[in-house]
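Sequence design from tokenized structure. All designs in this work follow the same two-part layout: the structure record, then the generated sequence. An example of the structure record is given first.
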């Protein structure tokens, strides 16, 4: 049995289409749980009108934010497999089926997202990133995390933690790695991430969450992954205009693994972010 958890806050513009994409999956989803985080728009009205029987709807008494909502949804799930889907993202109709076909003996499966869509659901771009064969590289380089691409065995579910807010979706994979859970990454190209003005990826809380992850795990990261970890933290600092701290992390990464900078993507990122902020200094 599969349960899908959809946390939503003020999602009137997108949430109905998101629920529809779950209902239209080629593999039947037996349980759809919507956790409304005290929305102030028409989210509740629209869901109860359009899907009165198709979803289990729960409304938080007050805004508790996304970690609480996801964890609550997981606690209500009856399925052996728990899939998460943010209220503004979409899946291709074969997403659940392909994830289950490739599950094997994993505790967590991550279907690497490549498609990015706009407000109207139109394709904006497709990621061409090469996925490293070593899952550890993927995890510690911060290339993993979107909840809409994440599925857990219910018995292995690791709760999302508020202290890492906006990086809780990355931290949960690091924590699972250290607990010895088997994490499988698949490349099904069935997840569509929506980019819009209301998305939280530009919030400074993402920067703060990244530094919190570094603080907690910096002394535990295996040596073979430390350079990737440091580079990602540094790159994130630069993204939020903390150039001094960003370059400090990047230079530490270089000292650990000089060959890291043979990557054209990393060099381009440094030039773009570092020089952009330098030019405004």
């Amino acid at each position: 049995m599969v349960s899908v958890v959809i946390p939503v806050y003020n999602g009137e513009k997108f949430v109905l289409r998101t629920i529809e994409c779950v209902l239209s999956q080629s593999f039947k989803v037996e349980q759809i749980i919507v956790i409304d985080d005290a929305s102030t728009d028409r989210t509740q009205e629209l869901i109860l009108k359009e899907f009165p029987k198709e979803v289990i709807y729960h409304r938080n008494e007050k805004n508790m934010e996304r970690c609480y909502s996801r964890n609550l949804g997981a606690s209500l799930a009856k399925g052996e497999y728990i899939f998460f889907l943010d209220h503004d993202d979409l899946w291709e109709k074969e997403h659940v089926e392909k994830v289950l076909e490739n599950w094997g003996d994993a505790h967590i499966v991550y279907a690497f997202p490549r498609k990015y869509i706009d407000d109207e659901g139109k394709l904006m771009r497709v990621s061409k990133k090469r996925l490293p064969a070593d899952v550890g590289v993927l995890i510690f380089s911060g290339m993993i995390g979107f909840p809409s691409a994440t599925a857990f065995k219910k018995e292995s579910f690791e709760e999302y933690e508020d202290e890492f807010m906006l990086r809780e979706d990355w931290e949960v994979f690091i924590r699972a790695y250290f607990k010895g859970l088997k994490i499988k990454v698949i490349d099904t190209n069935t997840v569509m991430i929506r980019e819009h003005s209301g998305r939280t990826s530009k919030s400074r809380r993402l920067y703060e969450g990244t530094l919190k992850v570094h603080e907690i795990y910096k002394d535990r990261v295996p040596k073979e992954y430390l350079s990737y970890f440091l580079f990602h933290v540094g790159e994130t600092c630069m993204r939020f205009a903390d150039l001094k701290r960003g370059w400090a992390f990047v230079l530490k990464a270089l000292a650990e693994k000089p060959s890291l900078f043979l990557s054209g993507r990393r060099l381009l990122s440094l030039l773009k972010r570092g020089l952009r902020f330098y030019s405004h200094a």
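The CA atoms of residues 112 and 144 lie 8 Å apart. We note this feature because it recurs in several other targets discussed in the main text.
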